[in-house]
């Protein structure tokens, strides 16, 4: 894998006002890079800020502080219409709910071609049609589907439409926000296999946001674990699952139910108590092993190191 | 063991504009005292409809029980009047729904919602009922129950609300508890807590549980026996070990194969191609045949009967017929089955 950085997230903060005085710190100081051609997984419980992170990276929200660099250029901050258009072509998003993310009054043809129209990618009507047909075939549907409306499709098929729409403008980077959570188990595997196939064919880079850790582990090269708006641990997926050091990651891993009755009978659940952390200093993001980062204080850092050595 | 519930050849249909949708097409199972039976399947497989029929909660007038018997302690629930069912619901058989956000009344204090069935079924006074409500909140591990009993649902988090729903369901010590995807809307860590809680309570009260879910991990955690449903029928049923370590039906293979494991490195997941059949016009033969890469010619013509694999294990697939060719599960599934079996064989051997 090349180590060229495609996306750099630096000190990203996204606060929301909740009522007159209180502020929700949905994302509170994130730092990570996404390399070209990799799949970066982001996991955490609902409310930990993982979706907000995705949405801020693609500039659906204006960041409170910090910056997001895409190919070295800042995404946040003021942009001319043209710059924004150029940026939007390179970065696309697949949403969680295939039922609410497709306009029910548009035909599949118009939904998929919307991006093509906006960016003027089709030479003429015939070219536009052919492009849509090709996209439909890429995602495992066929051209007869183009004249239909979203309600005529099943959940899995709709998610394929969402993927086709994202691919329409030939992006380099796709943010997939829980793309399979709303689908049935047997259909989940179909969609994940499709995403993997497309990545190999089109050299795509993914940010894969999910709460299903086993799926994230399967699809991601590297995985970051978020808790309360912060990354608490980041490592290559294998390393993270084998040698998790942060107590929150451990508790999350111990909570995943696996389809193995014997494992389940002997499972020991670890619960996480955020008040157990060393509070003598502000925790920092430190590299505990090459490419394996964890949020900890210097005292905890020494302890985690010892744990790992065992 | 004593059978709490016996379901015989249950058929449920819905009348729609386009005709009759045969949601459940002949389901047979029984539920023993103190056991957990998990029903798994995709959306539309009829698992929720089956349990709604058990409670006689099918939407009227479109949904109806076409055929079959539901025997609860020898009494056929299909034949009971609405009034009699009202006496049973919440007392002998109760239900936990998927979404704790919508199954609680937002305008009623949590305590009153728990007390409702106590006052109605057990003829308690308000004072007694409130005391019992506090005990129940304590049982489902809600801190400060004395204070919480007077609060409204919006003051509870999702996991806490599901605990309240469980407390309501347990209020009258039901003999049968039906849990319809009780943890699907919750985070994994909260899910693990709720599952542990349900198991503890079951041990204490000896309740029989029907647990509906599509998550095989959850099944492995809670179930004693598993029924796999597809297109309105049970295609495989057996003990949790039978179904996970020795699956016989190609659909079960597909379900197991489509979940990634945490320690393996498959290049591609084994996906079941296509989509479930339309139950408006159920296909001829085995409903799974069109998605089944191991389908035999007979699968498209005739429906397979239930074949007995072992004393506890049954599966409806022609592959088990004595004349059927010997077909092995797909390599990815098999590797995984063997992987699981080899890690499992150690401690199991010691016990026997």
TrEMBL record, chain A:
Segments traversing the membrane: none
An annotated GO BP: transmembrane transport
Organism domain of life: Bacteria
One Pfam match: oligo_HPY
Keyword Zinc listed: no
Domain ABC transporter, chain residue ranges per copy: 7-253
Keyword vocabulary terms for this entry: ATP-binding, Nucleotide-binding, Transport
Annotated CDD domains: ABC_NikE_OppD_transporters (cd03257)
Gene Ontology MF terms in the entry: ATP binding; ATP hydrolysis activity
PANTHER family assigned to the protein according to its UniProt record, in alphabetical order: D,D-DIPEPTIDE TRANSPORT ATP-BINDING PROTEIN DDPF-RELATED, TRANSPORT ATP-BINDING PROTEIN
Family per similarity comment: Belongs to the ABC transporter superfamily.
The protein, known as: ATP-binding cassette domain-containing protein
Protein's organism: Terrihalobacillus insolitus
From TrEMBL, chain B:
CDD domains the record matches: ABC_NikE_OppD_transporters
Biological process (GO), any one: peptide transport
Ranges annotated as spanning the membrane: none
Keyword Ubl conjugation listed: no
Family classification: Belongs to the ABC transporter superfamily.
Subcellular location: Cell membrane
UniProtKB keywords: ATP-binding, Cell membrane, Membrane, Nucleotide-binding, Transport
Protein name, entry field: ABC transporter ATP-binding protein
Domain ABC transporter, first and last residues per copy: 5-256
GO cellular component, one term: plasma membrane
Annotated PROSITE patterns: ABC_TRANSPORTER_1, ABC_TRANSPORTER_2
Membrane topology: Peripheral membrane protein
Primary localization: membrane
GO molecular function: ATP binding; ATP hydrolysis activity
């Amino acid at each position: 894998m090349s180590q060229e950085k495609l996306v750099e997230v630096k000190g990203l903060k996204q606060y929301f006002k909740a009522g007159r005085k209180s502020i929700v710190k949905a994302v509170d100081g994130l730092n990570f890079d996404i390399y070209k051609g990799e799949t970066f997984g982001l996991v955490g419980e609902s409310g930990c800020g993982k979706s907000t992170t995705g949405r801020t990276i693609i500039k659906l929200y204006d960041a409170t502080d910090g910056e997001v660099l895409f190919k070295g250029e800042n995404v946040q901050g003021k942009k001319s219409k043209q710059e924004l258009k150029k940026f939007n072509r390179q970065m696309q998003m697949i949403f969680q709910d295939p039922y609410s993310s497709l306009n029910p009054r548009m035909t599949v043809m118009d939904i998929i071609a919307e991006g093509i129209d906006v960016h003027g990618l089709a030479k003429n009507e015939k070219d536009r049609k052919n492009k849509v047909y090709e996209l439909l075939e890429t995602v495992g549907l066929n051209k007869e589907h183009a004249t239909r409306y979203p309600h005529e499709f099943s959940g899995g098929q709709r998610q394929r439409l969402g993927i086709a729409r994202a691919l329409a403008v030939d992006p380099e980077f796709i943010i997939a926000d829980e793309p399979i959570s709303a689908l049935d188990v047997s259909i989940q595997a179909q969609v994940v296999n499709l995403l993997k196939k497309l990545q190999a064919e089109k050299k795509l880079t993914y940010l894969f946001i999910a709460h299903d850790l086993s799926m994230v582990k399967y699809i991601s090269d590297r995985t970051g674990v978020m808790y309360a708006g912060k990354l608490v641990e980041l490592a290559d997926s294998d390393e993270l699952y084998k040698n998790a050091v942060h107590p929150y990651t451990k508790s999350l891993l111990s909570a995943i139910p696996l389809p193995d009755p014997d494992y389940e009978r002997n499972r020991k659940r670890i619960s996480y108590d955020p008040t157990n952390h060393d509070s003598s200093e502000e925790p920092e993001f430190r590299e505990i092993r090459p490419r394996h980062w964890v949020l900890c204080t210097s005292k905890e850092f020494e302890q985690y190191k010892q744990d790992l050595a065992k | 063991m004593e059978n709490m519930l016996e379901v015989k050849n249950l058929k449920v249909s819905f009348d729609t504009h386009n005709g009759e949708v045969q949601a459940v097409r002949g389901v047979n199972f029984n539920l023993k005292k103190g056991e957990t039976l998990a029903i798994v399947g995709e959306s539309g497989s009829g698992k929720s409809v089956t349990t709604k029929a058990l409670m006689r909660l099918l939407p009227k007038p479109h949904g109806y029980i076409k055929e079959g018997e539901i025997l609860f302690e020898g009494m056929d629930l299909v034949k009971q009047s609405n009034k009699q069912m009202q006496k049973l619901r919440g007392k002998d058989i109760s239900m936990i729904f998927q979404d704790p956000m919508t199954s609680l009344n937002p305008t009623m204090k949590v305590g009153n919602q728990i007390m409702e069935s106590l006052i109605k079924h057990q003829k308690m006074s308000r004072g007694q009922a409130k005391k019992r409500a506090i005990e129940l909140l304590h049982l489902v591990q809600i801190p400060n129950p004395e204070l919480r009993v007077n609060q409204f649902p919006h003051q509870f988090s999702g996991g806490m609300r599901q605990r309240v729903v469980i407390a309501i369901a347990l209020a009258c010590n039901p003999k049968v508890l039906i849990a319809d995807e009780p943890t699907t809307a919750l985070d994994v860590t909260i899910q693990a807590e709720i599952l542990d809680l349900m198991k503890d309570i079951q041990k204490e009260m000896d309740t029989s549980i029907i647990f509906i879910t599509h998550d095989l991990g959850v099944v492995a955690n809670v179930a004693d026996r598993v029924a796999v449903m597809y297109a309105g029928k049970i295609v495989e049923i057996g003990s949790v070990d039978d179904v996970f370590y020795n699956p016989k039906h190609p659909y079960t293979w597909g379900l197991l194969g489509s979940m990634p494991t945490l320690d393996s490195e498959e290049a591609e997941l084994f996906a079941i191609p296509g989509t479930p059949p339309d139950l408006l016009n159920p296909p001829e033969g085995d409903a799974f045949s069109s998605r089944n890469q191991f389908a035999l010619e007979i699968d498209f013509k005739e429906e397979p009967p239930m074949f007995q694999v072992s004393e506890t294990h049954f599966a409806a697939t022609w592959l088990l017929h004595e004349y059927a060719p010997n077909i092995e599960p797909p390599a990815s599934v098999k590797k995984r089955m063997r992987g699981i079996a080899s890690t499992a064989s150690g401690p199991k051997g010691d016990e026997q």
